[in-house]
Amino acid sequence: MHNDKQWQPEEMALRRRRSRRTALVVGLVAVAVYVGFILSGVLAH
Q: What are phi and psi of 44, to 5 degrees?
């Protein structure tokens, strides 16, 4: 399945952009869950 061709610079840039966007989305979801737990704890009292 793995091919050993050299990555083209534009292909690497595209992969880097996609992985950065994915990491940002995952981070935002994690922060949203964290804030949600804090708010639920605060509002429950």
A: -75, -20
